[in-house]
Design a protein that fits this description.
heterodimer; A: 254 residues; mainly alpha; 2 domains; two-stranded antiparallel sheet; 2 strands; 69% helix; 2% strand; B: 554 residues; 22 helices
Chain lengths: 254, 554
């Protein structure tokens, strides 16, 4: 298609698209006026999370219990995406691995300044601690495995910023990161299967529920949070490693 | 009830295990584990097929059964078509994994791992009764498929093809998500049976636009014109074992989703306007069949040819699609595509034609006959040229775009097809034949069609745990005319292949006629491989579908 023809067709189609979308939105209930039907689901969930699951964060209850099977799928979407990135960026037969230096010849490499290095090193421990806190408190307060996992993954990134690639590799070797990611992903399925064997329903709770508001509450939801945190942290670090290796280590055939 | 989660959970678990042991497992062990897992899913699918024969299996995750008619959690609803699709997916994945033991020379565990995730996603997609869960598995299927499509990433082509695939399908995913959002805003429900009940009988702009968005999103996956552009690019670059899954089952799953969502959720609001919706979908379907046939006949790149074939073959049976299959297998496959008895495709074509005639669409069987014949002719032409050496060496039809040298998919000698490559192809063809010979095939298919269309019974079964499903339906025998048509299709296809290759006058007229050149030129120019073009066509299709439904379906 010629660019002008394409632009014309695109603009006309998009105008029609926007028109029908807006027409549809006018049929929604006005803002602030809850639909009696959709209010039912919220009320049901709110009335069940504390008495039946001892979970005080209703969003976590929906994500990891009522609709926990969706979240299993979401977690594997991330797992598959990271595996896919590793597959596409793998070392090909005609590439060779070299010492980690910038592939671009003659580029001026500036080391991180002392201020950046100090700040990064100082932030590593708080990042790990805060990540662990968010992962383990998903059933009590907003947060959980996904959010906490991302925070945990930022710790090795800070190490990379403060030092060099080989110090990142020493802290987070690829085999360890791959294992953590896979164990996290597989762990969710194992927890589901445990529910299947103990209560005859996949992802059914199989642990004591604890006291509402306590860290050790929520039954298997707390355990799921841990596996998701492991998977997400491992996935993000693996993604970082794969991209850095593509840029720094692998050489094109010359 | 232990079985319903297994087709999803088992492949995911083994995929994670394989990825964890990436550096430790020898390659043969990883392949064997993956093949066994896929075969196990097939066995579970057979058992579910048997159990769901009279009454669909309803399974609630986490034990959250509906309360006061409202679904709390996610439910699987497994009936004949759903179990059949899980079986088909597992058979094709097993065959592809066997095939790829000889196809790839260097793989770790990443390839089998992603194949198993692909299988789990397709299984969940076929079994679920929840609209958002359907979307989750749509996304999971996409994530695995994008990476598998770009497997040969050392070349620029596969990355480009995978990128086209990823961008267009992600736009489709956005459409589906927007449609789900609109529906949730109206009904507060994600369970399909519950949505069907809550929507009632009132069609307004919100419900029609939501249907248009969801349908168009799934039609992107189904590669229906004008949402089909990505499929040709993806097929041209993806490794053969992955192509088998793309056109063998993934594309069909897109159509299945449209069918399932329409009948479970939207059939109530469109009851008075069913004819208009059918006509709207027919426009898209007929355009796809005709464009697929023409493009296929004008195509020289074999894998691209096979993808256009999948554009007009929408039945649920698996066929061998491997280019390394020997000549005889290839001809048998072409006969299957032409709808020759006793291939299962023959019965599928008969049933489609019968229902078209019932609706007074007497021209429709001729369109599908022509499309199937042209597709088979293109494949036979390829066979005659490659295996029999018919025809001249030079090409008469214009081939703009030039030649791209592709590396062979396998290394080593090519004088013999390895057993791991032709056995899966032969096995799939045998299954296609056996499925056509199965007793009570058409009766079961009709019964499944009646069940899937019964919105009230579906909702009662899922939400009220009642079992009002009707009894089985009688077989529909084929008439002599149907057999004659099947045979005539194959003969016509052979004749057409012979004419284009060996009858110089015809070849020159067709090859050099300005009309043929112009037509092929326009079609090839439209399939440009440029993402902005594809997205523009996609938005155009959605706008056309949405505007047409607001005008004619209200």
């Amino acid at each position: 298609m010629r660019p002008l023809v394409r632009l014309g067709l695109f603009l006309v189609s998009t105008a029609v698209f926007a028109g029908i979308f807006v027409a549809a939105l006018f049929d929604l209930h006005p803002l602030g006026h809850a639909d009696p039907l959709s209010a039912t689901y919220g009320d049901l969930v709110n009335s069940l999370t504390v008495p039946e699951r001892h979970i005080t964060d209703a969003v976590t209850a929906v994500n990891f219990d009522f609709r926990g099977f969706d979240t299993l799928g979401e977690e594997f979407i991330m797992f598959a995406s990271v595996l896919g990135a590793a597959l596409l960026l793998r070392k090909h037969a005609d590439e060779s691995a070299g010492p980690p230096i910038d592939k671009q010849q003659g580029r001026q490499i500036t080391l991180a300044s002392d201020a950046v290095r100090l700040l990064s090193v100082a932030l590593v421990s708080p990042a790990v601690l805060f990540g662990i806190y968010v992962v383990t408190h998903g059933q009590v307060t907003p947060g959980g495995g996904f959010q906490g996992g991302v925070i945990l993954a930022s710790a090795p990134l800070l190490i990379y910023v403060s030092g060099e690639f080989h110090s990142l590799r020493r802290v987070a070797p690829r085999w360890l990161v791959e294992a953590a990611e896979s164990i996290g992903a597989g762990g969710y399925v194992v927890i589901g299967a445990a529910g299947l064997l103990s209560a005859n329903a996949f992802l059914h709770n199989f642990l004591p529920l604890g006291r509402p508001g306590d860290v050790f509450s929520g039954g298997s939801v707390a355990l799921i949070d841990l596996t998701v945190g492991l998977e997400v942290a491992g996935g993000f670090i693996l993604l970082l490693l794969v991209f850095l290796e593509e840029v720094l280590v692998l050489r094109d055939p010359i | 009830m232990l079985t319903p989660p297994i087709p999803v959970a088992l492949p995911l678990l083994v995929a994670a295990l394989l990825a964890a042991l990436n550096r430790l497992l020898p390659r043969w062990l990883a392949s064997t584990l993956a093949i066994l897992t896929s075969a196990a899913v097939g066995c579970v699918a057979v058992s579910m097929l048997v159990y769901s024969r009279l009454d669909p299996i309803v399974y609630w995750f986490g034990g959250w059964v509906p309360r006061r008619g409202a679904a709390l959690g996610i439910g699987f609803v497994i009936d004949g078509p759903g179990a059949m699709l899980v079986l088909l997916a597992s058979i094709l994945v097993t065959a592809s994994l066997v095939f790829s033991t000889r196809y790839f020379d260097t793989v770790g565990t990443l390839f089998p791992s992603l194949m198993l995730i692909f299988l789990a996603a397709m299984s969940g997609f076929s079994q679920t009764g929840d609209l958002f869960n359907l979307f989750v598995f749509f996304e999971l299927m996409s994530a695995a498929a994008f990476a598998l499509c770009g497997y040969k990433s050392e070349e620029p082509g596969p990355l480009q093809g995978a990128l086209n695939f990823a961008v267009t399908n992600t736009v489709g995913a956005f459409l589906i998500l927007s449609g789900i959002g609109l529906i949730y805003g109206r009904t507060g429900a994600l369970n399909m049976a519950q949505i069907g009940r809550a929507l009632g009988n009132r069609a307004d702009a919100l419900t029609l636009v939501a249907l248009a968005f969801i349908a168009c999103g799934f039609l992107v996956k189904a590669a229906i014109v004008p949402f089909h552009f990505w499929l040709a690019d993806a097929h041209a670059v993806a490794p053969a074992p992955v192509c088998v899954l793309f056109s063998g089952v993934m594309v069909e799953l897109g159509l299945y989703a449209v069918t399932r969502v329409y009948w479970a959720c939207f059939s109530g609001i469109l009851e008075p306007r069913q004819g208009a919706l059918r006509n709207l979908l027919l426009v898209f379907g007929v355009a796809t069949a005709l464009l697929g046939a023409v493009m296929c006949y004008a195509q020289r790149h074999l894998k691209r040819m096979l993808r256009t074939a999948s554009v007009d073959e929408m039945d649920l049976r698996g066929r061998g699609r491997q280019i390394q299959a020997t000549g005889a297998l290839f001809v048998l496959g072409a006969a299957g595509l032409a709808g020759l008895p006793p291939f299962a495709t023959f019965w599928a074509a008969n049933m489609m034609d019968a229902s078209a005639r019932e609706l007074g669409l007497h021209w429709l069987p001729w369109v599908s006959f022509a499309a199937a014949t042209a597709t088979a002719a293109a494949l036979l032409r390829f066979w005659a040229r490659v295996f029999l050496g018919w025809g001249p060496n030079v090409e008469e039809l214009p081939t703009p775009g030039g030649h791209v040298r592709e590396r062979p998919d396998t290394s080593g000698g090519h004088h013999r097809t390895p057993a791991a490559m032709y056995l899966p192809a032969a096995g799939l063809l045998a299954l296609g034949l056996l499925a056509g010979l199965a007793p009570r095939l058409t009766g079961a298919a009709y019964a499944a069609a009646i069940h899937i269309q019964d919105r009230g019974a579906y909702a009662q079964r899922v939400l009220d745990m009642l079992t009002p499903y009707p009894a089985a339906v009688q077989d529909q025998p084929a008439a002599a005319g149907d057999f004659a048509r099947g045979a005539a299709g194959l003969l016509l296809a052979l004749a057409a292949a012979w004419m284009t290759l060996c009858w110089n006058a015809v070849r020159r007229t067709v090859g050099r006629s300005p009309i043929a050149r112009a037509l092929v030129g326009v079609l090839r120019a439209a399939h440009s491989g440029i993402i902005p073009d594809y997205v523009t066509w996609l938005i155009f299709g959605v706008a056309a579908f949405g505007a047409a439904s607001l005008i004619w379906l209200r």
